[in-house]
Write a structure and sequence with these properties.
With 107 residues, the protein is an alpha+beta fold. It has a single domain, classed as Beta Polymerase, domain 2 (2-Layer Sandwich). Strands 3-2-1-4 form a four-stranded mixed β-sheet, sandwiched between helices. Strand 2, helix 3 and strand 3 form a beta-alpha-beta unit. Helix 1 crosses helix 3. The radius of gyration is 13 Å and the shape is globular. 27% of the residues are buried.
Length: 107
């Protein structure tokens, strides 16, 4: 697991920087973070960036990260949010952000 996380962190950081942004933190969440993963389970990454991107730019970045990870055999769901957005949503259980911050493990 540690090797996959190391590889994922490198690939995620490269893709974010390629998009002209800066990674502030990466969190692993979901079944792998809880220790409940099966061999076929995917990886769930929540990427916090400094910049506040428009919706389409943020979704495009998440897709590029997913493709980069998949090329290395790491099948993942990736969510990208700005630090500002995280601060706005961190205490609201109506957002995924709330749960990721509760259970997420820093990568």
């Amino acid at each position: 697991m540690e090797e996959v996380l190391r590889q994922a962190k490198t690939l995620i950081t490269e893709e974010v920087e390629r998009a002209g942004c800066r990674v502030l933190r990466i969190l692993l969440f979901g079944s792998r973070a809880r220790g409940e993963a099966r061999p076929e389970s995917d990886w769930d990454f929540f990427v916090v960036i400094e910049e506040d991107l428009e919706f389409h730019a943020r979704e495009n970045l998440a897709s590029q990260i997913c493709f980069a990870l998949a090329r290395k055999g790491i099948f993942a769901d990736v969510f990208v949010q700005s630090e500002q957005c995280v601060r706005e949503r961190e205490k609201n259980p109506g957002f995924l952000t709330y749960y990721v911050l509760q259970e997420g493990i820093p990568v």
